[in-house]
Amino acid sequence: MPERAGQDRVVIVGAGLSGLTAAHRIVARARMLRRPTEVVVLEAKDRIGGAIWTDHRDGFTLEGGADSFITNKPWGMDLCRELGLSDQLMGTDEQHRRSFVVRDGRLLPVPEGFVLMAPNRLGPILTTPTISIRGKLRMLMDLVIPRGAPDTDESLASFVRRRLGREALERLVQPLVGGIYTADPAELSLKATLPQFQQMERDHRSLILAGMRQARTSGSTDRHASGARYGLFVTLADGMATLPQTLANGLPPDCLRLSTPVRKICKPELGSALWRVEPLDGPPLEASSVIVSTEAYSAARLLDGVDSELALHLRAIPYASSAVVNIAYRRDQIAHPLDGFGVVVPKIEGRSILAVSFTSIKFPSRAPVGTVLMRVFIGGATQPELFELDDASILGIVHYELGELLGARGAPLLEVVGRHPRAMPQYTLGHLDRVAAVRRRQARHPRLILCGNAFDGVGVPDCIRAAIAAADTAIAALVEPAQPAAA
Ligand SMILES: Cc1cc2nc3c(=O)[nH]c(=O)nc-3n(C[C@H](O)[C@H](O)[C@H](O)COP(=O)(O)OP(=O)(O)OC[C@H]3O[C@@H](n4cnc5c(N)ncnc54)[C@H](O)[C@@H]3O)c2cc1C
What we know:
Elements: E1 9-13, H1 17-32, E2 38-42, E3 54-57, E4 60-63, E5 69-70, H2 75-82, E6 89-91, E7 99-103, E8 106-109, E9 114-115, E10 118-119, H3 123-127, H4 133-140, H5 156-164, H6 166-181, H7 190-193, H8 195-204, H9 207-218, E11 233-236, H10 242-249, E12 256-257, E13 262-266, E14 275-279, E15 285-287, E16 289-292, H11 296-303, H12 308-315, E17 319-330, E18 342-344, E19 355-357, H13 359-362, E20 371-379, H14 384-387, H15 391-406, E21 414-425, H16 431-442, E22 448-450, H17 460-479
Parallel strand pairs: 1-2, 1-16, 2-12, 7-18, 16-22
Antiparallel strand pairs: 3-4, 5-11, 6-11, 7-8, 9-10, 13-14, 14-15, 17-20, 17-21, 18-19, 19-20
This protein binds flavin-adenine dinucleotide.
């Protein structure tokens, strides 16, 4: 038998950032509207946060997943303010806001002003040793190449090859952008991942001209940054897990049920308006609305019985797995000056790591004085076989690569392998059509709401925005009486 009548209940499946943000929003709105509402969050794991977790060891702050978020999308900052976390927000260190890229086994700086896919200055492109003379001349052709066909779903790789040439793709864009999505740019949809670059081409024709004009008009203080616009990123002083933890702390007692995997969701039966959510163990729960914030393939499993076509569309969203190794050394064990925020590794270099983030250079308070904390990324869509290795083999790769690239010597002070199995949705070609198909099918099921990083953005602020929209839909449904399902 269901636990209790569920007219005033919203069940949320998944206690990652998306599920917790939705829960927080519903609780806050229901209080404001003086609407008695019970929110229940069911989480399969024995911890909250999903892809976000933080560990504190021996004075180091270890981030398992996200280590910062961008501030030019306002939803992350807004939520932190609302939760009273403003005084804990911390920007990146002002020194060394640049990245390196590996060429022939050596670390070379990403040209100043080259941000993800577009240079905002010409000088550094002309003088960089990262690109050959031939490659530079090809990049400059961007100034005269006409626009591509409008509104096509072009892969990121094809777009960059067309505008800046193969070398810029292989030597700069593949490692920089591939690292963010742990993805293969030949598969990624530009429209679904970085539509602003398609817009730059539409508005200015040339990416170089667009980058230069934008840098001039915004008067960006980050004009010299390279790799990412590091001045736009913030983190939380005690680690990113503060965000899901503060959301969870603000929920009513008994709202959050950990170690409670959901096995099935059933649609309202005839004459009822209530959804039924069945945990693997324990009694089913009835609810007027259900928010599913899990990975898309997990949502597909839960919803197979509700709508097999919806499940099919959800299953079509591919995922990649990656490992993140937090590793710390004494400063004197590393020969490289570490005068940047990290290094990305082009696939054509044939190495076994995707990137290294110099965490304690980016955020000095993450490690004790005289030590260095780094995060090494392994696997992703381009090297899935490496994710399958055991921890000892992964650490062996990390030691070897850090020795070769940074001159790391001797035993690390600390090393922790974190794994993200099938955690990163891949917004491949056709992603926007797949999401539209999901939304069309979802619309047939009032009060069944899907959110999470599979659909409209993987970044922290994107997930927050989508979760708020999901919560608002659930709130709107709570204030209108539900119609029982008809024959
Ligand atoms: C390695 C890595 C690094 C990243 N770095 C950054 C970064 O620096 N900046 C940034 O902005 N973004 C970053 N991201 C992206 C961002 O962290 C994620 O997109 C976001 O945290 C996803 O939150 P979510 O709640 O949508 O999904 P998830 O965190 O995946 O949460 C889904 C939850 O659903 C639960 N669940 C699944 N199935 C069930 C079930 N049947 N029953 C109950 N519960 C279930 C899961 O256990 C999980 O807790 C990173 C992601 C990864 C993987």
